[in-house]
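sorry for the late reply, my laptop died twice this morning and i had to redo everyting from scratch. anyway the thing you sent over, i finally got around to it. pasting the sequence first so we're on the same page, its 350 residues, then the predicted structure underneath. double check i copied it right bc i was rushing
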Amino acid sequence: MKASPQAATAAEAFEKTSMQRDAFLLLKDMIEQGRIRPGEKLLEVQVAKAFGISRSPARHALRALCEAKIVRPLEGRGYQVAGRPKAEHVGQIASLGELRIAPLPQWERVYKKVEQELWIRVLFGSLRITEAALAEYFNVSRTVARDVLARMHSVGMVGKDGLGHWIAPHVSADKIRELFEMRAILEPEALVRAAPLAPAAEIERMHAELRRAISNGPVEIGPVGQLETDLHINLLDHCPNREIVKALQRTHILFVPSLYLLDSSLSVPQGTMHDALEEHLAIIEQLRRDNVRKAASSLREHLGSAATRWLERFEIFSKAERSPLPPYLSPFKDTGATPPPVPAAAAHRR
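ok and here's the structure:
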């Protein structure tokens, strides 16, 4: 099968985006773990060589770290790792070794991109997904496209109508309210069970990152998305009751990771974002004091406020100009003859 120029360009762009994201996350983890130290220097060509990627994704990964205030640009070239450096580390080029970023399997690369589109688009209406167009767009076989849709079907993200068409159902404002109600019931209990199993270092890292985000002035959407993920997904994943964790996975569309939700043009009031971070900080501080029940109570209150903020964001987002649908997606209007599939609201895969 020969891909169209548009599809080939899209596939190439996605490959670059995937490598950029992987490089960003790998560098971020190395900095957080202390393998790359404050004051040390990172160079574009060095990152590209160490990770086995081209300079373009290396450049964008370093810029993303800069936007997240994890590194800062140096005069001339390169970036310096933020924090309080020791004198001997200042200006020293960080040691990365060779940590090759392996390309994702075809189905997984396509899955992540389609997932990104659907998590955003279903907020505005139901969609039909055309298998053949999806395969052509990403320059993959129909078998790969079918595998992607089957995997999405297995977690309830898409379903089929009476004619056998793949459908991603609308996530309405009412659905958002229901998902927040579900979170308010389950998340506090999940936190109570997860807290004794969460490493102290993880709690301390979250505390430090929250304090840094609050004190750094204007809050960016990207770091907020990561902090949301840290508390509501990563921390609660320590809950030993996996049925609670699986149930909560149905709610994860409410805080799409910042690297998925490309909404830099979305104007979210700064006050609401600072309020959210202050509430997160209150929860984490209670955990640091081993006041787990108090932390759970604070989490429940936070979710009540978060529901209001999310619906405000939904209103802003609904009025924003949206880009055209990719050719494998088209609007779907249910005629009422066949009940639409019941969504799992873009369940978080593990």
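Strands lie at 41-42, 71-73, 79-81, 127-129, 159-160, 166-168, 329-331.
thats about all i looked at so far, will dig more tmrw
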